[in-house]
Design a protein that fits this description.
The protein has 105 residues and is of the alpha/beta class. The chain is built from four helices and four strands; from the N terminus they run E-H-E-H-E-H-E-H. It is found in: Cytoplasm.
Amino acid sequence: LKILAKPTSHTRNVLRLLQLDSVQKVEVHCTWVPSTLAAYAPFLGQMRNLRKLLVSQVHMPAHTYSQEKEWLLSQLTWKFLRMDYLWKFCVDAVLFLKGHLEHVL
């Protein structure tokens, strides 16, 4: 499954139609903010056979409050840690994980 454009309600509708437990690889090739990633985490959680997750261009907006940033990052790391079936997690911008990277590893 490849996501090449910013997610929309259409993207969510398509994901609802798929048999998510049969997806083994997801590639996100567009700019996301952590809140978008968190919003799509329930779909990722339904992908019980997901083996590889590639996420590129995740950026934390400069105007994000530190409390909001901490909450978003804790939610993301918690969700990723629950994906024990995931073999490979690739992200090309780790700045949004600053201070939380050790929890994901």
